[in-house]
Structure formats: C-alpha cells, structure tokens
C-alpha cells in the first residue's frame, strides 16, 4: 500500500475551537469548514489543495485512501474528517503523535508535532495557523492562502522523517503499529450508540440532588466553595479542619477533597450535621459528573446517536491506554449511568471480556510465587484465602457473601501490597474505600502479605538490580525483560524509557526525567511498571488475534475488551474470547490467565 501523509487545516474561532469542544463535536458542527489540506505520497514533497467541498472531495478520492495507509499527526482528527465529512475510510491508519509516545514523549513530555520534530531536529513547525483565527476560506487573500498552504505542506514534510524514525530507527513492531490502527479505528468507526434521552433524565436527577444537598446543609454556596470560609465554618462548629501537603505546590493546603483520608474520617466521626455540610461542600466543588454527562449528550447528538470511542495509545509510561477527547472512557465505573447509556444497535448486543486479576497474576508468575500462582490456576478465591490469614480464620471460612468486609481487606491486600505498599498507605486506602481499619491491623496485614508471599518481596530487591543495570548501561535479564542504558526491553520488542536515570547520592533513591519532571523510581515501583506493561501486551495481543478474524473491538477499558456483535453470533464470539484470552504468553508460560465474558444490551449489563 502507498503511504499517504496528510494534514487538514480547518476553520476555528475563539469559541469554536478544540480547546472548548471534543473533536467529533468540532468536525460535525455546522461551523465546520475545510480550509485546505496537504498530502505526500510515499514521502514525496507535499502538495497542498484548497477549494470548495467538491474540489476537496475529488482530490481526496485521487489519493485512493481506501486501499492505502493514512499517516497523520493526531490521526483521530484527520481520519475523522475523512470519515465524517468525506465518507472515506483508509485501509490502514497510523498516528505519529501516538507513535511518539513510547520513544519521544519520555524526553519531551509532549507529543505535539512541534516538540517531537524539534527533539529530533528534523524541522521547524510554523505558526501561520495563528493568523487563521476566525477566517473562512473565502476571507484569505491569495498571498495569505499561499502562506497558509505552505505552512500545511511543511507540517506534512516534517511528519515524514518523524514517521521514518518511529518505524525504522525505533523499529516499532508491526503488532504495535496495528494497535495504533485499531485505536484510531475505534474512533472513526463507532459501534456504540448512546442514549442521550436517558442521560438527560440522569442529569436532571443529579442537578435536583445537588440542590437538595445544598439546601439540607443550610450553608451558602459561596461559603462552601471557598477553602478559607469552609475552614472557618468547621472551626466555628468545633471541628479542626484537616491539612495536607499539596502534590502540586509542595506546600501545606486544606485537605477538603473527596479522596483525602482525613476529610473522609472527619465526615464519618463528627455527627450528622458535619456530614451534611461536608457532603454539600463536595457537591459544590465536584462538577465532574455533570460535565461528563453533558459531554456525552453533546457528542451523541452531534453524531446522530453514535458514540465514538476516544482512546490514546500508550497514554501511560508503561503503555497502558488512556482516555482522550474530553470523555475519559477509561474511567467508567461499573454499573454507572454512563455505562448504561452505551448500548448496541437493534439486532446486536455487547460482549465484554474482562481479564481476571491480570496484574496480580502476572506479578505472582513473574516472581515465581508458586503457591499464589497455583491458587489462581485452581480458580481459588485468592482474596478470601488471604483474608483468612489476616483475620486468623479457618481455611475456606471466608466468602464474599458472608464476610464481605474481610474479603475486601484481602482483595485490597492482594491487589496493592505486591508493589511494596506500606502500612500507612494500606491504612489510607482502606479509609478512602470506606472500610477503615486501625493502624496496628494495617501493620499486621502488611507483615502477613510479605511473609506469605516471600518471592514477591524478593522480586522488589531483584528489580533494584535492574535499576542499577539501566543506570550503568549494563545488559541484565529478569524473566521476559532485559535492560540497556536507561531502557527496559519488553518481550514484544517495545521499550520503556527512563531518561537520565541515576542514583541521587543525597538520599540513595533513583530518579529519571519525563521532560523536565523528576520522577522517583525504586525496585517495587519498577515491578509495577513491568507488570502493567506485560498485562497491556497480553490484552492487546488478544485484541489483535480476534481482529485477525475480522471482529473489531468497540471499546477497551483497562483490562476489558468490548465488542458489538449480531445476537446470532454472540455465542461464537464468547467461545472465541474464552479461548484466546486464557492462553498464557510464550514468554511467561506459567501465567494462569483467566477472564470473564458477559453479554448484554448495554454496557452496564455486561458484568
């Protein structure tokens, strides 16, 4: 296939801009207009085109993208323009912005075309787009349009060596290129519908509940919204306002956020009046739910009921996917109204396949923690078994129905303590979850985990050795991963970079840089990085194997693959997923992989 590098320039103004609305809202908005585009075939000098819709469509058709590969920086945007405005779906799609995330973003902390090409020294992105604010195509003079199209051609011309660097110099594996294609495809070929009418009802109820919470508290919104006024209010009622060290500023600040442990304790232990006031404070300060519901409604109504799945490839340092385009689809809590709003077209249903405790299983197998691996492999309730150790109960006594609190403690331990979580953090985690424990018990739980699973503890210190090897530029192997200078090599050919990794002699810790940010790293944290990266490879490999059969995911959420399939075919897909997703990778053959597959008319029913 030919490689077609492309970049669109479109109308925008101070209100109608991607800073304010999502890409699909922008592209499907009545104000949308293509000013022009530039394209390069197989790296030849870019050509630019500007004209009316018919002219632009004809020039795009000449590129034969349905039989070629589209390459763009922010390919979701350019491919969505092609799909939604010109009814063109490229055979393959590659995004140089997403592709830069494993290789360049660790150095720049930015995937913009300006910063990625600047880092490589392969060109200078222009600024002519700033002069296009508020201008329709007809508003440009000939000279202005010439300069704007020159700017557009330059974007394409510097994109070509960026692509070549990612594919040739970095040797990005073909499977990872395919992962990027599938990520973009989820966005430009939406499979999920969204019930905006249902969400409008949810929003109405939410706003009514918000007003009721404020009224019950009997406190002015201005007082609840102000940190200082709210602190004074608590003091006047005999309560000491909690403080914390801000992660943003490093300075002392009020601990009034919903996840602040001391604030949760304050709410629980100071009577009904204080609880109502604190709930009202949280209602005033937290608009996330309202904002997200409104965004879902707006996107759905711009897309004739469809809901594009906006995801970012390699969003996390470890390769995990992330949400984008102002929707954060990686944060859809089970049973939530947003999950319920996503549904399948008539005659179809959703099939959701979720890996079971994948990170805990990978951690156990990687460490050679044979007892825990066997429990997972035998289908035992690992959370309950660990809870019995914590509470000194008989083997087989704990189950989720009769001992939900105890099992939750075991679950928190299994999922969190494998990365060297200490007693204070375990204590805080339980409090945030609404299941507080005393500190002595937290200490005992941590001790119990480390004595029960000694190989996981040993693994933390083995990974200290990997850190030293990376800092010194030495080759070292641990299971399926190896090291080189400031780089961890994964078994599928991908890497995790740790730029400027070095030990700080003043405190003995290792640090690396993400752009200008200094990040601490230690053995157990590196274990967590590796476990997340390996888990991501396992999931994406399963997605690719199913895609080879012509069945494409509609959405991925953490360790969950979501499909929309004809009801007559759902049984076969369930069988295929149960087969594909339970095969251990050849680079970790002892891994006991398991998944749960559920079917439903909407996403919330798939549980």
Description of the molecule:
- There is one protein chain.
- This protein has 607 residues and is α+β, with helices and mostly antiparallel strands.
- Helices cover 47% and strands 15% of the residues.
- The chain has 24 helices and 22 strands.
- The strands form 7 sheets. The chain has a 5-stranded mixed β-sheet with strand order 3-2-1-4-5, with helices on both faces. Strands 20-21-12-22 form a 4-stranded antiparallel β-sheet, covered by helices on one side. A 4-stranded antiparallel β-sheet has the order 13-14-15-16, with helices on one face.
- A hairpin with a 6-residue loop joins β7 (243-245) and β8.
- α16 packs across α22.
- It starts with a strand and ends in a 7-residue tail after the last strand.
N-end to C-end Cα span: 41 Å
Q: Which class do the helix and strand fractions yield?
A: alpha+beta
The major beta sheet can be summarized as: 5 strands, mixed
Oligomeric state: single chain
Low-confidence stretches: none
What is the CA-atom radius of gyration, in angstroms? 26 Å
Task: Estimate the global geometry from the Cα principal axes.
Answer: globular
What's the pLDDT, averaged over the residues? 95
Total number of helical segments? 24
Task: Quote the beta fraction.
Answer: 5-15%
How many strand units?
Answer: 22
Q: In percent, how helical is the residue content? A: 40-55%
Adjacency order of strands in the biggest sheet: 3-2-1-4-5
SSE arrangement:
Elements: E1 3-10, H1 23-27, E2 34-41, E3 47-49, H2 53-62, E4 69-72, H3 75-86, E5 92-95, H4 96-99, H5 105-108, H6 113-120, H7 142-169, H8 174-188, E6 193-194, H9 196-217, H10 221-225, H11 227-236, E7 243-245, E8 252-254, H12 261-269, H13 271-285, H14 288-302, E9 311-312, E10 322-323, H15 337-341, E11 342-343, E12 348-355, H16 358-367, H17 370-377, H18 382-391, H19 404-416, H20 423-432, H21 439-452, H22 454-472, E13 477-478, E14 481-484, E15 487-489, E16 495-497, E17 502-503, E18 510-514, E19 517-521, H23 523-547, E20 555-557, E21 560-566, H24 570-580, E22 595-600
Parallel strand pairs: 1-4, 4-5
Antiparallel strand pairs: 1-2, 2-3, 6-11, 7-8, 9-10, 12-21, 12-22, 13-14, 14-15, 15-16, 17-18, 18-19, 20-21
Helix pairs in contact: 3-8, 6-7, 9-13, 9-14, 12-13, 16-22, 16-23, 18-19, 20-21, 22-23
């Amino acid at each position: 296939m030919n490689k077609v590098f492309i970049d669109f320039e479109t109308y925008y103004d101070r209100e109608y801009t991607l800073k304010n609305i999502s890409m699909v809202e922008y592209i499907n908005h009545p104000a949308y207009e293509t000013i022009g585009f530039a394209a390069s075939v197989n790296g030849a000098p870019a050509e630019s085109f500007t004209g009316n819709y018919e002219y632009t469509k004809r020039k795009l058709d000449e590129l034969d993208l349905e039989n070629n590969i589209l390459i763009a920086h922010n390919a979701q945007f350019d491919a969505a323009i092609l799909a939604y405005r010109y009814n063109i779906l490229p055979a393959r799609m590659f995004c140089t912005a997403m592709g830069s995330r494993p290789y360049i973003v660790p150095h720049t902390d930015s995937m913009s075309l300006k910063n990625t090409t600047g880092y490589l020294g392969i060109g200078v992105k222009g600024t002519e787009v700033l002069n296009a604010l508020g201008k329709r195509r007809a508003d440009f003079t000939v000279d202005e349009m010439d300069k704007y199209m020159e700017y557009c051609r330059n974007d394409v011309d510097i994109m070509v060596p960026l692509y070549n660097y990612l594919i040739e110099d970095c040797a990005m594996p073909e499977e990872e290129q395919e992962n990027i294609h599938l990520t973009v495809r989820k966005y430009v070929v939406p499979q999920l519908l969204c019930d905006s009418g249902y969400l409008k009802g949810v929003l109405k109820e939410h706003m009514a509940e918000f007003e009721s919470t404020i009224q019950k508290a009997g406190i002015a919104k201005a007082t609840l919204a102000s940190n200082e006024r709210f602190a004074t209010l608590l003091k006047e009622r005999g309560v000491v306002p909690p403080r914390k060290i801000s992660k943003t500023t490093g300075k002392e600040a009020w601990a009034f956020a919903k996840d602040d442990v001391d604030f949760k304790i304050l709410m629980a232990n100071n009577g009904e009046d204080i609880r109502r006031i604190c709930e009202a404070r949280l209602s005033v300060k937290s608009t996330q739910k309202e904002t997200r519901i409104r965004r879902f409604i707006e996107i759905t109504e711009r897309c004739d009921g469809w809901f594009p799945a906006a995801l970012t490839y390699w969003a996390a340092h470890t390769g995990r996917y992330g949400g984008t385009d102002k929707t954060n689809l990686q944060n859809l809590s089970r049973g939530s109204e947003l999950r319920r709003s996503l549904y399948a077209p008539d005659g179809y249903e959703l099939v959701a396949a979720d890996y079971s405790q994948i990170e805990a299983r990978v951690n156990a197998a990687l460490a050679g923690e044979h007892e825990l691996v066997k429990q997972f492999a035998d289908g035992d309730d690992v959370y309950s078994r660990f809870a019995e150790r914590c509470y000194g109960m008989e083997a087989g006594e704990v189950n989720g129905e009769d001992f939900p609190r105890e099992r939750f403690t075991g679950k928190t331990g299994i999922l969190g303590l494998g990365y060297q979580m200490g007693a204070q953090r375990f204590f805080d985690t339980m409090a945030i979850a609404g299941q507080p424990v005393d500190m002595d018990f937290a200490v005992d739980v941590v001790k119990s985990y480390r004595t029960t699973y000694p190989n996981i503890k040993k693994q933390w210190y083995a990974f200290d050795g990997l850190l030293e090897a990376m800092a010194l530029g030495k080759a070292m192997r641990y299971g399926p991963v190896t090291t080189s200078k400031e780089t961890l090599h994964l078994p599928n050919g991908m890497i995790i970079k740790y730029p400027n990794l070095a030990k700080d002699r003043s405190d003995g810790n290792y640090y690396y840089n993400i752009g200008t940010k200094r990040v601490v790293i230690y053995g157990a944290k590196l274990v967590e990085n590796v476990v997340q990266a390996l888990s991501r490879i396992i999931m994406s490999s399963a997605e690719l194997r199913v895609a080879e059969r012509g069945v494409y995911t509609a959405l991925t959420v953490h360790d969950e693959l979501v499909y929309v399939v004809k009801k007559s075919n759902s049984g076969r897909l369930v069988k295929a997923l149960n087969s594909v997703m339970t095969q251990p990778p050849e680079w970790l053959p002892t891994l006991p992989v398991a998944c749960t597959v559920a079917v439903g008319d909407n996403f919330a029913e798939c549980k």
